[in-house]
Amino acid sequence: MKSPSEPSKMRRQPQQQRSQERVKRILDAAVEVFDELGFEAATMNAIASRADTAIGSLYQFFPDKLAIFQALEVRHLERVSAAWGKISNLNVIELPFADFIKTMVGIYKEVFEEPTSRLVFIQYFTSKTMFQRIDDSLTQQGIDFQANLLKARNPKLCQEKCNLLAEVCVQAANALIVVALRGSEVHREEIFQQIEELLIAYLLPYDGERSNDKVMIVCPKCDSRNLSKNGFRHGKQRYLCKDCGRQFLDR
Question: DNA-binding residues per UniProt (predicted)?
């Protein structure tokens, strides 16, 4: 087998639907085997058995397991590209600030609900040498993408500041996502919720005129932003905290 640093390509691309379905089964099976055994311990026979296909069919498309893994790279890159496209198509820069963050985190969370992206993401931060298509330039693309969103939301921010804010957000989120993906499903949900709250707290002061009252006001008792307007008193807006029940006036 080739060393991880050497390129390893598919022998041929599937053209017919039947072949495409077989390759999909192979890749799905490989994700499970790599996840359970690790890349080094995984074998082509184990992948073929899990895919319920003959080992000869496996070798028709892939010369070795490294080529299979690199096909999974492509699958993950396609999901990341689709996520960026979805964020752009939804025009998130027009959303209220909290919804802006929630929407983005939610879309990225959807990416990692697919086992391939979970496997590839964790593996990248474990052993980068086996990757042929993904490198640090993908992280930089994510930073540039985020910086452009911040600049669009607040044109008063200089580009250098947007780049710095985006770098902190992307690098911090990546580190936390690794933790999330290595934990249980419950813990994963908790970490993604914390990523959302972290980004809201960090970026809110830089959101400019798009910040709204509901986001900027927090409960004086529990610091929650989960508020609802609750009438007026002495000419001031009154709020009700949906988390702790505290009622307070807009100061």
Answer: 43-62
